[in-house]
């Protein structure tokens, strides 16, 4: 079993990205918001306002992360009954 | 830091939950007027591990043994579990204004006015499930009439797609 079978993102830096030109806009929290240069001033203000209203969703530290409710999703391993312990070399 | 789960991964079956194809995702996004790309902040670590399985992903350091409480990247079925969560979170928006590829989300709308409404709806769904985003990796308000790069999951076959519209 190699990396790419395990997880589609292992060993890759790339993600889906627009190649359209973007620019940074500093928001009140000091972080940078990336948006398209093609937006009108009005739309830009809307993006800024929408992000600001939802600032709590943009976290910067792992400690800020909350866990998803285990009732919604949980990761199980379902290990085969006949599986044996293996000692790692 | 990484833990090698090669041996562990051999002893449980593959989760057959379907993972999306990037090409299809990009194809569908073409034709919409405005898009935003959202990235979940270390998405995988937001999913809890089953308590009975935490002990199986234990690792040793010089003086203590630790186990993870959250799902790990290197486990065989992590991608499938994440996709399952995304499908639940966005069940009411999938095919309407949201497309998901692993922990990248694309919000797409036919008009600028709708886009802000759609973004708010997406934010509401994320908040409801305690999910968080990485602002650094989000890009807002991209016009889809312009081409963009589509990378295969591991960037192996890079190709440029062009809008099919007039």
Could you explain the architecture of this structure?
The complex is a heterodimer of chains A (89) and B (166). Chain A is of the alpha+beta class and 89 residues long. In chain A, 19% of the residues lie in helices and 11% in strands. The longest helix of chain A is centred in the middle third of the chain and has 13 residues, at 41-53. The radius of gyration of chain A is 21 Å and the shape is elongated. Chain A starts with a helix and ends in a 36-residue tail after the last helix. By secondary structure, chain B is of the alpha+beta class. Helices cover 27% and strands 20% of the residues of chain B. Chain B has helices at 6-9, 22-29, 51-54, 78-89, 112-128, and strands spanning 34-39, 58-60, 65-67, 98-101, 104-109, 139-143, 148-150, 159-161. In chain B, the strands form three sheets. Chain B has a four-stranded antiparallel sheet, with helices on both faces. Residues 145-166 of chain B have low confidence and may be disordered.
Which helices and strands appear, and what pairs or packs with what?
The complex is a heterodimer of chains A (89) and B (166).
Chain A: H1 3-6, E1 22-26, E2 32-36, H2 41-53
Antiparallel strand pairs in A: 1-2
Chain B: H1 6-9, H2 22-29, E1 34-39, H3 51-54, E2 58-60, E3 65-67, H4 78-89, E4 98-101, E5 104-109, H5 112-128, E6 139-143, E7 148-150, E8 159-161
Antiparallel strand pairs in B: 1-5, 1-6, 2-3, 4-5, 7-8
Summary of the model, kept short:
The complex is a heterodimer of chains A (89) and B (166). By secondary structure, chain A is of the alpha+beta class.
Q: Unreliable segments of chain B (pLDDT under 50, ≥5 consecutive)?
A: 145-166
What is the average of the pLDDT values of chain A? 77
Query: What value does the Rg of chain A take, in angstroms?
Result: 21 Å
Element-level helix/strand string of chain B: HHEHEEHEEHEEE
Number of helices of chain A: 2
Could you give the order of the helices and strands of chain A?
A: HEEH
**Most strands sheet of chain B:** 4 strands, antiparallel
Structural class assignment of chain B: alpha+beta
Unreliable stretches covering 5 or more consecutive residues of chain A: 1-8, 10-14
Give the CA-CA distance, first to last residue of chain A: 18 Å
Strand order of the largest sheet of chain B: 4-5-1-6
Estimate the mean pLDDT confidence of chain B.
79
Question: How many helical stretches of chain B?
Answer: 5
> Which outline of chain B best applies?
elongated
Q: Please give the share of residues in helix of chain B.
A: 25-40%
Distance linking N and C termini of chain B: 49 Å
**Beta-strand residue percentage of chain A:** 5-15%
Strand order of the largest sheet of chain A: 1-2
């Amino acid at each position: 079993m190699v990396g790419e079978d395990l997880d589609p993102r292992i060993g890759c830096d790339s993600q889906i990205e627009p190649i359209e030109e973007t620019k940074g806009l500093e928001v009140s929290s000091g972080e940078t918001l990336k948006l398209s240069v093609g937006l009108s001033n009005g739309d830009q203000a809307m993006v800024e306002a929408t992000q600001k209203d939802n600032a709590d969703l943009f976290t910067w530290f792992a400690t800020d992360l909350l866990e998803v409710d285990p009732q919604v999703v949980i990761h199980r391993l379902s290990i085969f009954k006949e599986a044996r312990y293996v000692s790692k070399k | 830091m990484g833990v090698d789960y090669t041996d562990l991964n051999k002893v449980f079956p593959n989760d057959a939950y379907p993972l999306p194809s990037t090409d299809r995702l990009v194809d569908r996004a073409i034709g919409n007027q405005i898009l935003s790309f959202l990235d979940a902040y270390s998405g995988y670590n937001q999913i809890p591990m089953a308590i009975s399985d935490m002990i199986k992903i234990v690792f040793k350091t010089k003086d203590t043994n630790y186990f993870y409480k959250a799902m790990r990247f290197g486990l065989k079925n992590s991608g499938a579990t994440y996709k399952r969560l995304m499908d639940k979170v966005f069940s009411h928006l999938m095919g309407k204004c949201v497309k998901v590829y692993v922990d990248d989300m694309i919000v797409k709308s036919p008009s600028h006015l709708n886009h802000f409404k759609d973004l708010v709806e997406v934010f509401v769904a994320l908040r409801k499930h305690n999910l968080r985003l990485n602002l650094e990796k989000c890009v807002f308000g991209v016009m889809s009439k312009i081409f963009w790069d589509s990378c295969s999951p591991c960037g192996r076959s890079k190709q440029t797609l062009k809008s099919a519209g007039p």
